[in-house]
Every structure is written in structure tokens, then in C-alpha cells.
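Obj: model holo form, ligand = adenosine-5'-diphosphate.
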Amino acid sequence: MPDSQLRVNQRGIARTLVVAMILFSSLITLVATAIQLYRDYQRDLLLIDSQLQQIQDSHQRSLASSLWLLDEDGMQLIVDGIIQLPDILYVEVRDDEKIRASGGQWQTDNVIEREYNLVHEDSGQRIGMITAVATLENLYQRLIDKTVDILVSNAIKTFLVAGFMLLFFHFLVTRHLITIASFIRSQTLDSKSEELRLNRKQNKADNADELDLVVEELNIMRSSLHRSYLTLKESETRHRDLFDMMAQGVIYRDQQGAIVSANNAAREILGLSLGQMQGKEDLSSEWRAIYENGEPIQDAAFPSTLTLRLEEPVDDFVMGVFHPGEKRYRWILVSSKPWNPSADGAEKLAFSTFTDITRRKQADQEREQLIRELEIKNAELERFVYTISHELKAPLVTIAGFSGYLIDNVTANRKEKLSDDIMHINSAVKTMSTLLDELIEVARIGGVPESYEDISMSDLASRVVESIRSDPSLPEVWIEIAQDLPSVHGSYRQLEKVLRNLLENAIKFSEPGRAPLIKIGVRRQEEEDVVFVQDNGIGIDPAYHERIFTLFERLDPSIGGTGVGLAIVHRVIEQHGGRVWAESQGEGSGSTFFIAFPRQQLDQVAS
Ligand code: ADP
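Output (holo C-alpha cells):
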């Protein structure tokens, strides 16, 4: 919570109140004083007026008779008497000729002047005039004195009351307001503090004043704020946990496209830290995103960028993101929606969720690969069945043909031809039997599970060579076996057959008139060890180096055989995870058959 920048000013409420009170009180005093003075003024004016009137009432007649008699002393005596009256400044009695008696000082400023005619009582004739001048200066002086008295006494009274009010108000209100302010300032939402208590007498509930009410309401507000804060915090924690624990990745982007937030799953799936996503840390140069066809996705085509630009959702967008830690692509299924979290809708975000579909995608790819392989195998099987039926048909045709001859010759009693017919039928049956045996052998590879073991190719080669040498149906040949043939993990029975096939071919396809020379050797390559069987026989045209491995393929039908041997070799080696191929410069230049075993398999054996 930010600290308040406010400081109570010099005046404060109490002082402002007191100043206002002084001003108002002064104003009231001034108005009241003015009214009072005005009334005093009126009263004094009346008083002066009545004194002047008294001159007329009391002295007009006697002065008139003194003037008629020209009794100047008498008139002067009366005038002197009048002058004694308060506020009477000057009196003169005159007839038409001159002033007969006068008293006091003539003045023109701040005076009231009255003239009374003197009339002869009997004749009613005007004989003179009294001029009386009353001064207002005394009246003004009295008013000034009174004003000063009122103002001074009121000022003293007001200042005393104000001082008292200042202290009393501070004691009663302002010091508590300061306590309340510092209490509010000390409040933090996350910890529950003591209740607010003021340093004053506690009023009973039915006798509470405004401060009690404020304190009570503040304490209620503090409790309810604290409760609301805890509820909000708990809800926030729950949502944050959910956000971080969900398996789906979630990312928020702001209007400018900057990532505001990302959950744990998003970081794990993308292989990026939040700092990297927010651009605060360097993004690995390896990081990139691709479409399913492998083409790179530009920033503008990202689902969240599209959502921000078009303000529309983007659903089920599949993309690959390179995981810098795992050095491979993770495939994700992304949905992006526009989101306005602020009440006024001013803040526009893109809310993207994504699921890691790498495994599903791999499974899909594996399934597709399997389907492709199955299709190839099916096509292979079709060809295989076709080839087999074709190959089996030949001896059957022979048998059928010679059976017919046999019947004809028996009927015609041509005994000399019978043994020839039977010989042909026999030979066809033998061919068919051999073919069927070899086909069974081909079918068995991969079908019947073989027990695998560690096999020393040197031992295996020695045994096969020995059995060939001891076979009377085979000619004597020179076979050389290299010392350092590798060991492999595989089926002894099948690998023996492979070696025997290759060696028998090397003998069978030797160049007529040239003593067969055969070598079993090894060529070590980086990831595999290659065993080879080399001969100096008739050689193979490079055009046929691959074809000879297909079933029933024979390059020279005049040389005996079924064309199954190399197909068996190929299938066995493939079954062992290796590969086989033939090399030859062409006819008459000998041939070499290579069998490569992967190094991993060899290491397994070594360990
Ligand atoms: P078969 O030996 O029964 O004819 P194979 O499948 O073993 O059948 O061999 C297929 C064909 O490959 C042979 O008919 C032959 O034409 C050719 N061939 C195999 N081995 C050699 C070799 N060492 N030298 C020359 N040609 C060979």
C-alpha cells in the first residue's frame, strides 16, 4: 500500500474552525454594534432635539418679553442658563437690529442649528429670533467610546472562547482524527491487526457519539476487508495452482503480442522459461515453429497473433515447436481466443491453450508407417504367391505331361520308353520337393521365433567350411578364413545357412577351368562390422546385383539351382537388423557378398 503523501497543514480543522468562528463572531459583533450604535445615535439625537425643544418651551416667552423691554442683562442671564444645558454650544438672541445677548462658541461643523421666532405676546408681532446651536461632537465621542468598549470587550471574549475552543476541539476531535488516520495508514490487508481504540472514555452503545460511530464502522470495515482479502487470496491461490498444475499449456498475450503470463505446462512443452517467452531473456536461436509439412511458421501466422489481429478464435491449429532442451520438435494442438478481462473491455488479450500431441502424432506416424510397410508386404506377398505358383507349375506340367506319355506308352506297350517317362516324373517331383523345402525355409524366417545367442563368426565359418569339405558331392576348393571375424548376436542355425549358401554359390558359380579361390574376411566400418565371402568365379553383371536377392531369380538357368538361396540370405540378415549386398566388376571377375552387422549389436555381444 503506498504511503499517504498528505500532511496536516498549519491550520488544521481546529484552527480553521476557530478562525471561522472569530470571523463570524466579529461579523456578528460588528453588525450588533452597528445596530446598537445606530440606536444610541438616534436616542442621543432625540435627546439633543428635546433640549433644543426645551429652549423653545422654557425660555422663548421670557426671552420675548425681555427683548420687548430690551432687558439685555435679563436676556444674557437666560442665555447663560441655556448654555449650561448639555450639548448646547451657542445661543444668541437678536432683534432686527443686532444681537442682544449671546453665549457659547459658534461652530458650523457637526452641529444642529435651530431658530425660534420671538413674538410679542400681546400684539403677536415678531420682534426677534433665538438661534440655538447644539453640538454633535459629544454624541460622536460617546459613540466612539462605546464602539471601542464593545469591540475590545468582544475581541477579548472571542479570543478567549476561541482559544478554549481550539484546545477543546483538539482534545475532543482532532487528536482522535490523527489517531484514526495513523491507524488506517498502519493497516495491511494480509495481516490482522489490533482493533482501533481511541484514548477517550468509552461511551455506552446507546450513548455513542459520532467518533464512536466512526471507530465502530472502521473496525467493521477492517474485519470485512481482511475477510474479503483472505477469500480473494484463497481463490487466487486456487486459480494459480490450477493454472500451474493443468496438463494443458496456457499463455496470455497482450495487445502488442507480448506474453503476459504462461503456466508451468506451457514452459515445459515449449522448453522455454517465462523470461525467454516474455523476451526479457535471450531466446535460443534454435527455437522455431513449423507447420505439419515442415515449413516454418512466421510470427504473424501464430494462432494468438491471428486472434489479436482478427479478434476471433482460432481452433485446433497443429504446429511443431522445437524444444531446445530435448533437441526435437514437440507437436501441439493450439486453440486461441480473444479475452477482455477488464470491466470496460479496454484491455484485449489473446488466451491460448495447447495440448502436447507429440505421442499421438508419433503413434499416428508409426501407424502410417506400419500401414505403408503392410502394403509393401502385401504386394510382396502377392508377387511371392504368384512367383511360387509359377515356379511350382513347371514341374507339375512336366509330371502331367510325362504321366500322359506314360499312359500312352503303357497302352501302346512301348516298354523301352517307360523308364524315361518315370525318370522325368521323378526328377520333377524331386525339383518340386526341393522347391517346397526351400519355400518352407523362407516362410520360417521371421515366422517361427528363433533363439538368439552370441556367435563367433570365426567358429561358425570353420564349421561350415569343414562340412563343405567333407561333402563328397562338392569339389575340392581353397577356402581362406580371416583371423579376426567378429562375434554377433543371432540365430546360429540361420547364420549357418547364410554362410553355407554363400559358400556353395561361390563354389557353384566358379569359372570353368579356374581353380576356385574363396576368402571369408572382415571389413570394419564406423558403425558396423562387415563379413564378406569373396570368390574368383564367373562374376555378376552390376545390373543384376540387386535382382539376384529376389525369390527364384537365377541368372543362368543352365546352372542348377532354385533361385531361393540368396532370398533366404537376404531375409535372415534383414531379420538380424543387418544388410547384405553383392559387388562384382562383371562377368569373369569374381564376386564378393557382404553381410553387415550393426555395431550396436556387436557391442551388445562384447559386453
Ligand atoms: P541358386 O544358387 O539356387 O541359383 P541363389 O539365390 O543362391 O539361387 O542365387 C541366385 C542367382 O545369383 C544364381 O542363380 C546366380 O545366377 C547368381 N549367383 C549367386 N551367387 C553367385 C556367385 N558367387 N557368382 C556368380 N553368380 C552368383
